[in-house]
Amino acid sequence: MAESYHSIAVTGAHGKTSTTGLLSYVFNQCQPTSYLVGDGYGRGEKNNRDFIFEACEYRRHFLSYKPSYAILINIDFDHPDYFDGIDDVFDAFQAFADQVKEGILAYGDDPLVKKLKSSAPNTYYGLEAGNDIRAVNIQTSSAGTTFDVEIGEQFNETFSINTFGKHNILNALAVIGMAWIQNKNVEEIQRGLMDFKGVNRRYAEKIVGNQILIDDYAHHPAEIEATIRATKEKYPDKRVVSIFQPHTYSRTEKFIDAFAQSLSLADQTFLCDIFGSAREKQGNVSIEEQKTKFPVRG
Hints:
The protein has 9 helices and 14 strands. By secondary structure, it is α/β, with parallel strands linked by helices. The model has no long low-confidence stretch (mean pLDDT 91).
């Protein structure tokens, strides 16, 4: 199906769903766009020119696609029930990059991403000098985050998002970069970024009494760290308590020390029993082992 449209795939170890949802929303402010997001939400119209979709690396599923363009957010080791290690993960992303036809927008501050080779032109985005597309002059307020985007001497505009944290800045920067590559209107991009309400199971907030409950499907140590840091940035005067349910036994066993390190960023952590999957009903690790890694309750 993707090959029948001018397609844009969004892939990476972390942040695919949030970035795909944001990209789809922004593009739809500019013109009707079909999309399929990993949170189960999507829409398709036969006459739409663009089709945006999330492309997952698990079991190399994304090799089923040959998109026109791709956003490559990052490369990291996850899914230890399938991948042997980071080299195996890198090989999968290299194979995917080989299949992109017109261009790749890639996160240039990630050393592994920079190692990828492709016949399609690469454009790099990030915070560090040397990237083609950069976010600079980053400022936060109670309303969110504001930053300037520089693209050489061709482009210098200010954008605002109603979210916090480095990962959200980078997700927005990837969307801005792809929208610029596709010649979208700047004012419509700016409006879409500010109006976006988020995707399912990603930083969903609910106020209960004097507490703020945040539900986020952060299932990798890097994602947990990003979520906790963003929460502390948004609510600097509040105590952050995490309630964590590990997802899959193989991931818990492989990253048990990294999970403990990420969760230790919270002021207090409660642990729930490991949540298995259709592929894993049991494993060689228990929640009791994780409790020994750092002081938790639960």
